[in-house]
């Protein structure tokens, strides 16, 4: 397999507003660690994939469409061959429209687009032969933050390494498929673990990649070749670190835990020289709880006085509700509200493993549903190709809570209908089965 990589600094200037927390006092006041966009280019037997992954909360769907058009015109790539994902750090610039949680920064987004184009071009310039190493560890760090009757976590830590076929100083008898061949170097590594990147919490005003940045740094420092490391987030809509507002030292500790779950395994695993490789993208209309003008008005009047929300966000919550009410009433009256949202299922097969990108914050049960239906090794890449907001389980609708009752107000849209996650997991299972068809 031919593999190209690039890493480019996308750290904004101090003073930008940070995205992800309505409780945060704006703007940013310093830089705790740098933010990066990382590009991975894969090519084999006519199939290609360009994957951009960034230390951001997420990117808008329109950003993805525009970037794919650039990739088509300048690089000859189809939309199903381009994926853009984010770590979901809550300490980066505002690259999506999230009410009262950092003002959308159009100037920074323009800068980001330019930097991603540079990274993509660099990654595709001179790809090199690599074998693929696939491992899986465990980490029990994440907790179900909802504290309801249906807690669930996903302890799996997926790891995919791209080990250079060229090895300095290797003996002529060295075997490319051997575990830990002499002086083997990694060009790139992908890890996947389901947990919100919110360890620094709303009290933090420093620009930071949060925990994913520390995981990436540790793996890059410890693995030979100092690979470009893409720390991807899983189906983590209900999952958080054990607590928030932690120190930089605690970030190192927790980031190290995730890295160490796969670090030793990479050192021992054999490489596959030509694993099966395929990409597939499918758009799935996801039904939403579309309301009439009268229902919107009644909902806003009821929820604006919610005691818990007012206690947590105060005037910001009241402004959020009013903005949601006004925006949705206008959308209904103009006929642009719609009854569905566009979910994209983006599957990448590498050997016997599937990576499934999804433009949403799905609950962790989603991954298990698809694994059980397909019997495949699978990792969900959340915040891929956009972020439409939370997709809770059907049981969560009965339990209530922020993700079900409040979050869609900040995203300024109608929430998905109950049962949406389960329907989407059925569609995802079909996509996974299809990407494994010979």
Verbal overview:
This protein has 438 residues and is an alpha/beta fold. It has one domain (2-282, 342-382). It is built from twelve helices and 20 strands. Helix 5 packs antiparallel against helix 7. The protein is globular and about 65 Å long. Residues 168-178 have low confidence and may be disordered.
Question: What are the key terms here?
Answer:
eight-stranded mixed sheet, four-stranded mixed sheet, 12 helices, 438 residues, alpha/beta
Q: Rg to the nearest angstrom?
A: 21 Å
First-to-last CA distance? 18 Å
Q: What characterizes the major β-sheet?
A: 8 strands, mixed
**Helical run tally:** 12
Number of strands: 20
Output the strand order for the largest sheet: 6-5-4-1-8-10-11-13
Detail the topology: elements first, then pairings.
Blueprint: E1 2-9, E2 18-19, E3 30-31, E4 36-44, E5 47-54, H1 61-75, E6 82-86, E7 92-93, H2 106-125, E8 128-138, E9 143-144, E10 156-164, E11 186-193, E12 206-207, H3 210-222, E13 228-233, E14 239-240, H4 248-268, E15 277-287, H5 293-303, H6 307-313, H7 315-334, E16 340-350, E17 353-358, E18 361-362, H8 365-374, E19 377-382, E20 390-391, H9 394-399, H10 402-405, H11 407-411, H12 420-435
Parallel strand pairs: 3-12, 5-6, 11-13, 17-19, 18-20
Antiparallel strand pairs: 1-4, 1-8, 2-7, 4-5, 8-10, 9-14, 10-11, 15-16, 16-17
Helix pairs in contact: 3-4, 5-7, 6-7, 8-12
């Amino acid at each position: 397999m031919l593999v190209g990589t690039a890493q480019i600094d996308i750290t904004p200037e101090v003073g930008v507003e940070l995205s992800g927390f309505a409780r945060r006092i704006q703007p940013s006041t310093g830089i705790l660690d740098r933010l990066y966009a990382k590009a991975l280019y894969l090519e084999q037997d006519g199939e290609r994939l360009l994957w951009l992954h960034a230390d951001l909360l997420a990117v808008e769907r329109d950003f993805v469409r525009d970037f794919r058009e650039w990739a088509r015109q300048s690089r000859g790539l189809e939309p199903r061959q381009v994926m853009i994902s984010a770590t979901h750090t809550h300490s980066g610039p505002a690259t999506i429209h999230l009410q009262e949680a950092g003002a959308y920064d159009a100037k920074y987004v323009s800068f980001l687009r330019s930097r991603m184009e540079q990274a993509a071009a660099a990654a595709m310039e001179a790809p090199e032969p690599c074998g693929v190493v696939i491992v899986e560890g465990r980490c029990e760090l994440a907790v179900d933050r909802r504290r309801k009757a249906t807690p669930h976590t996903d302890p799996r830590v997926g790891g995919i390494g791209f080990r250079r076929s060229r090895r300095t100083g290797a003996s002529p008898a060295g075997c490319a498929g051997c575990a830990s061949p002499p002086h083997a170097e990694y060009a790139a590594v992908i890890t996947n673990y389901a947990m919100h990147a919110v360890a620094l919490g709303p009290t933090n005003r420093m620009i930071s990649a949060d925990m994913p940045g520390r995981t990436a740094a540790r793996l890059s420092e410890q693995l030979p070749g100092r690979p470009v490391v893409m720390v991807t987030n899983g189906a983590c809509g209900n999952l958080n670190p054990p607590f928030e507002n932690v120190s930089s030292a605690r970030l190192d500790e927790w980031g190290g835990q995730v890295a160490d779950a796969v670090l030793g395994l990479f050192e021992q695993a054999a490489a596959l020289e030509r694993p099966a490789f395929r990409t597939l993208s499918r758009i799935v209309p996801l039904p939403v709880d579309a309301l009439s003008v009268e229902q919107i008005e009644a909902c806003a009047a009821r929820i604006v006085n919610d005691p818990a929300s007012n206690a947590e966000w105060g005037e910001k919550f009241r402004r959020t509700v009013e903005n949601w009410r006004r925006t949705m009433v206008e959308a209904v009256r103009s006929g642009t509200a719609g009854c569905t949202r566009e979910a994209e299922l983006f599957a990448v097969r590498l050997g016997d493993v599937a990576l499934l990108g999804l433009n949403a914050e799905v609950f962790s049960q989603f991954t298990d549903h698809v694994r059980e239906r397909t019997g495949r090794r699978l990792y969900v890449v959340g915040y891929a190709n956009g972020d439409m907001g939370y997709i809770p389980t059907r049981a969560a609708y009965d339990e209530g809570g922020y993700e079900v009752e409040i979050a869609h107000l900040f995203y300024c849209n109608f929430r998905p209908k109950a049962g949406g996650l389960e329907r989407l997991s059925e569609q995802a299972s079909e996509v996974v089965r299809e990407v494994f068809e010979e």
